[in-house]
Amino acid sequence: MKVSFDFDDTLDQDGVWQYALQLIDRGVDVWVVTARLTDEEVEEEYGTVINGKMNIPFYAGNDDIYEMLEALGIPKDHIVFTSLGPKGNFFNENSDFEWHLDDAPKQLWDIRNKSSVTPISVLNPHWKEKCEDILRRADKQHYLKEWYIKDLEPYNYDYKDYGVFENPNNLAIGWLDDPNFPKGKTPPGFLKKLKKIKSVNRHKGSHTCPFCGDAEGSAIHGIKQGKITYVYPSLLRHYIKEHNYLPPQEFIDVVMSGDFIEARPNPLRRGPRKIVIKRNR
Q1: Domain C-terminal end among 138, 159, 191
Q2: Residue 244 in contact with residue 182, Cβ under 8 Å?
Q3: pLDDT at residue 167 above 60?
Q4: How many domains would you assign to the chain?
Q5: Average pLDDT over every residue of 32-37
Q6: Contact 4, 31 (CB under 8 A)
Q7: Among candidate residues 110, 138, 166, the one where a domain is terminated
Q8: Rounded to two decimals, what is the model's pTM?
Q9: Is the separation of the CB atoms in 176 and 237 below 8 Å?
Q10: Domain of 123?
């Protein structure tokens, strides 16, 4: 699936570029469609040759776009410059985008009237929920279920390659995306005990609750009993409290017993984090 973002006052804003990172992590094809001039047009309009070298004023170039896209991992061929023109023309010819997020009302109007691509205003306080709703409805093949891991199956999210959890006996708990999860009540005090367990690591981007869109999380937690390490996301408490999710009984028993080893990141190590073990008290 493909989506696109405007750059100025959209993708360059906190909260928006983090969301773009999250989408990339989930396998969405992220593009940037901006009304800026191309590099060639910038040179022609603003460039001056000094000592045989082209100089572009800092306010006129596209270096800030390239810098951010490199940081996000978006390739240069995923940038479209409409050269101050209407974006609806591009989307009319490229209708395979699910939505385009922008702050300019005229551009949004133009896209709506010239193409089948859904325009979404980043000025709408519910823009993220709108984006997620469209993606879920378009995701008929469950393409975006990469976050989902069935309870008690091996934790296989790609961030394990960072060395966060190296034991093959790591089992997943609460990595939800499908609404058909087990429901019920957890024992009194269970959520309070979960809250005390600190995170081991964080993903590159955050994950929005797929059931209400009102909570986000990016942390990984882990507790070990015997040879088994139970690995769960920071949204686990939200799933239990707000959506009545019921974790497997064996995980509940371990948490309630307090007889486990808590995984903690080693703060002295730089680069990808390894875990050290600290006894639960």
Answers
A1: 138
A2: no
A3: no
A4: 2
A5: 94
A6: yes
A7: 138
A8: 0.55
A9: no
A10: 2-138
Residues composing the chain:
281
**Token pair belonging to 234:** 């920071």
Residue 177 has pLDDT above 50, yes or no: yes
Instruction: Please tell me which of 160-169, 184-193, 200-209, 267-276 the model is most confident about, judged by mean pLDDT.
Output: 184-193
Residue 55 has pLDDT above 80, yes or no: no
16 and 46 co-located in one domain: yes
Domain of 55, CATH number, reads: 3.40.50.1000
CA distances to 48, 175, 209, 280 from 217, in Å: 48, 12, 8, 23
